[in-house]
Each structure stands twice: as C-alpha cells, then as structure tokens.
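FW: tagging you since you asked about this chain on Friday. Here's the raw sequence from the shared folder, copied in full. Didn't touch anything.
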Amino acid sequence: MESFAVSDAAADVSDDEESIEKLRTDAVSLEIMSFKEGDEDPMHAHGEDEIYHVDSGNAKLNIEGDTYDVSAGDVIHLEPGTDHQFLDFEDKLVMTVLYAPAKGSAE
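HL: got it, structure written out here
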C-alpha cells in the first residue's frame, strides 16, 4: 500500500514545475498538480483518460473552446485526445490527476 497527504505532496511541487508524480504502475499514474495566480497552462491533450479531482482553489477549464468554472470538490473526466487548459487561477489550485493507462504510455 502507498499513502500520502495531498497537501504534503502539493507543498513538494516546486515553483518551476506544475506537478509531481506520486504513483506509477503500467495501468495508472497519479499526479498532484498545483497552479497559482498568474501561472499558465497551455492548451494540450494527452493520449490517456484523465480524471481530475479539484482538491482546493478555483479556476476555469477550457475544453475544446467551451469554458467551465471548476472549484474544490469537482471531478472532471477527459477522454484521450481532448484539448484542454486550465486558466484564470483565482487562488492556488490543487488537483489530484489520475491517468489511465499511465501518463505517456498511450502516446
């Protein structure tokens, strides 16, 4: 079993990176992402299914041109190849992200 506190992992994300990988198997990977006001997340897509849990904060999520408000407690699923970007960070946004299969393995 592996266990960690999201708040501790978020504190480990350095200012020059947006995420830290906390778990990896062939089937899944899990990252903690952290954005602060003024950060930029360029439009991008991944080859894997992504499930985001917003742990804290507020922002907007652009999914292929449609924009949605996201806040603590929200869960978002994106299918492989879905263009997306997080923007307009109102405060520190912390998310737990699950990729299946593991991030980078489907590209």
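FW: The chain has a mean pLDDT of 94.
HL: agreed, and The first helix runs from residue 6 to 12.
FW: great, closing this out.
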